[in-house]
């Protein structure tokens, strides 16, 4: 299967249609964010604390990181298609478990199983890399994630509306139906895109150190991890800021959570439009700087006593804008270091992003207990963004050193 053939929907002999890749990646983003407006009501329903229910974010991210370490080598060994279909099946079954869970502990157990759906985020990128060269793959990943960004933009609003109308369990009915739809679409449309002969795990393990010895690989991983870390800190702390600091309802909290996704859609469009022309490093630099400037302005306004829901959520749009520039290009950079290990690189790179995000989402809950409104969370996100700037500067310096 080669990219010179036109993609036809529901034809597994042609490259996967972009709609399939968008929805395959988007279902993972939806699972991560659609239930966020329901966290306060779920806390009451399960008669537990907000800190316990917040584990539905941090534990989910931690398990996602582990799964993505495993799924890359599995997809390199057995192919993209069977691994993706199995993961979607697990997600649907786990969503049924979340719907029927009688206690917070059982809910969290099934919630962790839902993390299997993150396979779609990893392998949609690996599929693109199977079909396109590095510069073009950055543009294609940008277009895929631009479409994917529409999902987390509207998902919290859908979740908030469902929660207010029918209760929090209706959100998981929605996830079950969405998962089944993507499973059927993937089965009908996505053929196998990995063209090399399958190798044993022993052969793969023997080659993996080759990837890990690359400083450029880890530089791209760090840039992506710290850039996305700002967003995951937002995920961990924004529900508390919306409900406890600014008193927003579930619906308006869901609408506010879409602010970063709006920026993300714009950033991914710009990646799709300019990455092949400008180069991936220049796009990553632009993304990290935009996020840093936006969060610095938010911190200054909040420290000056001008903090409000529009200020907090409005400037968090810069997190999405920066991530839209950084993630597709850093992902293309990771995958281009050792193309024959694209699945492994995508898995480990995504695991680093999600694992770091899990830690930052926990830290978000901790720093918000320090008081002083939303300012501690803004500072945490700003520090993560500054580290992303340092990471891409390291990659550029390393490439200059090798070229000299």
Could you please describe the fold and organization of this structure?
By secondary structure, the protein is mostly helical. The two termini are 38 Å apart. α2 (39-45) crosses α3, α3 (50-78) packs antiparallel against α4 and α6 packs antiparallel against α16. The protein has 17 helices and no strands.
Question: Which properties best describe this structure?
Answer:
404 residues, mainly alpha, Growth Hormone, Chain: A
The biggest beta sheet is recorded as:
none
What share of residues are in beta strands? under 5%
| Total strands | 0
Assembly state here? single chain
Distance from first to last alpha carbon: 38 Å
Write the CATH fold name: Growth Hormone, Chain: A
Question: Please, what is the average pLDDT?
Answer: 82
**H/E topology pattern:** HHHHHHHHHHHHHHHHH
Question: How much helix is in the residues?
Answer: over 70%
CATH class category label: Mainly Alpha
**Count of individual domains:** 1
The assigned CATH architecture is Up-down Bundle
CATH superfamily: MFS general substrate transporter like domains
What are the segments in which pLDDT stays under 50 over at least 5 consecutive residues?
none
Which structural class do the helices and strands define? Answer: mainly alpha
Number of helices: 17
Which value, in Å, is the CA radius of gyration?
20 Å
Shape: globular
Task: Please write out the topology.
Blueprint: H1 18-33, H2 39-45, H3 50-78, H4 80-100, H5 104-114, H6 119-131, H7 134-166, H8 169-189, H9 201-212, H10 215-245, H11 250-257, H12 259-278, H13 280-306, H14 309-315, H15 317-337, H16 342-368, H17 375-403
Helix pairs in contact: 1-6, 1-7, 1-8, 2-3, 3-4, 3-5, 3-16, 4-5, 4-6, 4-8, 6-7, 6-16, 7-11, 7-12, 7-15, 10-11, 10-15, 10-16, 10-17, 12-13, 12-15, 13-15, 13-17, 15-16, 16-17
């Amino acid at each position: 299967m080669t990219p010179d053939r036109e993609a036809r929907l529901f034809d597994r002999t042609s490259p996967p249609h972009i709609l399939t890749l968008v929805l395959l990646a988007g279902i993972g983003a939806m699972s991560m964010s659609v239930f966020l407006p329901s966290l306060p009501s779920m806390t009451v329903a399960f008669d537990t604390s907000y800190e316990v229910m917040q584990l539905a974010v941090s534990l989910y991210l931690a398990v996602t990181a582990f799964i993505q370490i495993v799924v890359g080598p599995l997809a390199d060994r057995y192919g993209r298609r069977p691994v993706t279909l199995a993961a979607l099946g697990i997600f649907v079954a786990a969503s049924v478990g979340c719907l029927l869970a009688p206690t917070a502990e059982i809910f969290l157990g099934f919630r962790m199983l839902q993390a299997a759906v993150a396979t779609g985020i990893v392998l949609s990128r690996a599929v693109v890399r199977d079909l396109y060269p590095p510069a073009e793959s950055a543009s294609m990943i940008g277009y895929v994630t631009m479409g994917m960004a529409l999902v987390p933009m509207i998902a919290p609003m859908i979740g908030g509306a469902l929660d207010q109308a029918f209760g929090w369990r209706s959100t998981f009915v929605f996830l079950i139906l969405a998962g089944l739809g993507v499973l059927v679409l993937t089965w009908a449309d996505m053929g196998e895109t990995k063209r090399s002969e399958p190798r044993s795990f022993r052969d793969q393990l023997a080659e993996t150190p080759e990837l890990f010895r690359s400083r450029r690989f880890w530089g791209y991983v760090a840039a992506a991890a710290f850039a996305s870390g700002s967003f995951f800190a937002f995920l961990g702390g924004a529900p508390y800021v919306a409900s406890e600091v600014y008193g927003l309802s579930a619906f308006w909290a869901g609408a506010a959570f879409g602010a970063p996704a709006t920026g993300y859609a714009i950033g991914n469009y710009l990646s799709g439009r300019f990455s092949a022309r400008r180069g991936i490093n220049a796009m990553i630099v632009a993304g990290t700087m935009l996020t840093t400037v936006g969060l610095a302005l938010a911190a200054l306004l909040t420290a000056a006593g001008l903090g409000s829901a529009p200020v907090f959520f409005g400037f968090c749009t810069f997190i999405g804008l920066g991530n839209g520039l950084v993630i597709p290009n850093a992902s293309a950079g990771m995958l281009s270091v050792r193309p024959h290990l694209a699945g492994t690189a995508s898995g480990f790179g995504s695991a680093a992003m999600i694992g770091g995000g899990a830690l930052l989402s926990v830290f978000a809950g901790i720093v918000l207990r320090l008081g002083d409104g939303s300012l501690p969370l803004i500072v945490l996100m700003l520090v993560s963004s500054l580290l992303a700037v340092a990471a891409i500067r390291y990659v550029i310096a390393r490439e200059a050193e090798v070229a000299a």
